[in-house]
Design brief:
Helix content is 48%, strand content 18%. By secondary structure, it is α+β, with helices and mostly antiparallel strands.
């Protein structure tokens, strides 16, 4: 038995027998396991280091992106602040020239006695003028071979105009004088477009004449894109420019008497259809001394008005752009202007 056990403890290799004890086998196994564990630990450490490096790289990328975003936001804020400062600079310039006792009267307004603006707000800020545009269109019409009895054929384009209209139909033949009346009294877009096409050959041709006329009379901050005042990009004017326009128009009797007419009517030349309408200016007949001039409204422009009152030897003007209560406001501002006009001549230069 002892010989058998001794024989079992021998290892044969290439014909040579090496005796190995159980302890040595166990030690070898332990050493091998430790080596394997050490290798695993190294692999694990390398993986952990790689994960850490990746995390650091991600953190740096996020920090860089955050810094870039912050810089961009700061740039936007700086740009916005600069724009606001510029806008405030314009407002400050206007306020420096004219006192503003009615800051809620309108987005922009001007009150003038004769040739002098006495009160105002953002008088040089361009805004949509709505149908106040038609005053300029009327001047252009009168400048170009004005013949009030000329027959004007209403086109499909004119008959289909949106907004304020008098009900013209395609193919109607109407006197030019009656169409001008409808433009000023009722602010008819259909009548306005019919006259624009008649005078300019096309809407585009007429608009070119409008902008030339605007520059000629000193409306330096205005630009027009259509004859009737419909909202359009770049269709803008200022309270100061519209005051200039109103003063020029007031010297045209063909405009002034129409602006003071409470109502009007005419018949088409080819069908004898009667068309009647009332003035859109609610100041006429309700406010003493008020004689015109023009109303306007679009969603973008809001409620607009050029009001004129003849106070003794003076003319009091009010221009309102986007006014929440144009009739009440115009009444108040006209009264304020009349009170200013009553001052001794030496004090009229001061608000």
């Amino acid at each position: 038995m002892r010989s058998f056990l001794l024989f079992s403890a021998l290892v044969l290799f290439a014909g040579t027998v090496y005796p190995v004890s159980a302890a040595e086998v166990k030690q070898q196994q332990t050493t091998t396991k430790q080596a394997v564990d050490k290798d695993k630990a190294k692999v694990k450490a390398k993986a952990k280091a790689a994960d850490k490096a990746k995390a650091n790289a991600n953190a740096k990328a996020k920090a860089k992106a955050a810094a870039k975003s912050t810089a961009k936001a700061k740039s936007k804020r700086a740009t916005k602040a600069a724009a606001l400062a510029a806008a405030e600079s314009v407002d400050t310039d206007s306020a420096a020239d004219h006192s503003d006792p009615y800051p809620k009267a309108a987005a922009a307004y001007a009150v003038a006695v004769d040739d002098q603006i006495i009160y105002g707000r953002k008088v040089d800020t361009p805004r949509p003028p709505a149908s106040l545009t038609k005053v300029l269109s009327a001047l252009v019409i009168l400048d170009h071979n004005w013949q009030p009895d000329a027959a004007v054929l209403v086109s499909p384009r004119a008959a289909g105009m949106e907004g304020s209209r008098i009900g013209l139909r395609k193919g109607d033949s109407v006197r030019a004088g009656d169409l001008l009346t409808a433009m000023i009294v009722r602010s008819g877009n259909d009548a306005c477009m019919a006259m624009a096409e008649h005078v300019g050959g096309s809407e585009e041709g007429f608009v070119k004449l409008m902008n030339q006329k605007a520059q000629a009379i000193g409306m330096a901050s205005s630009s027009f894109r259509n004859p009737c005042g419909l909202d359009a990009d770049g269709h803008l004017s200022t309270a100061r420019d519209l005051l200039t326009l109103a003063r020029v128009a007031d010297h045209q009797s063909e405009i002034s008497w129409r602006a003071n007419a409470k109502q009007a009517q005419f018949r088409t030349l080819n069908t004898n259809r009667r068309i009647s309408f009332r003035n859109t200016n609610a100041m006429l007949g309700t406010q003493p001394e008020t004689v015109g001039l023009k109303t306007g409204f679009t969603n973008k422009a809001g409620k607009c008005l050029i009001a004129l009152a003849e106070h003794g030897a003076h003319k009091v003007w009010v221009v309102l752009l986007h006014s929440p209560n144009r009739w009440g406001t115009a009444k108040q501002l006209l009264a304020r202007g009349a009170s200013h006009a009553d001052r001794p001549a030496a004090s009229l230069a001061q608000p």
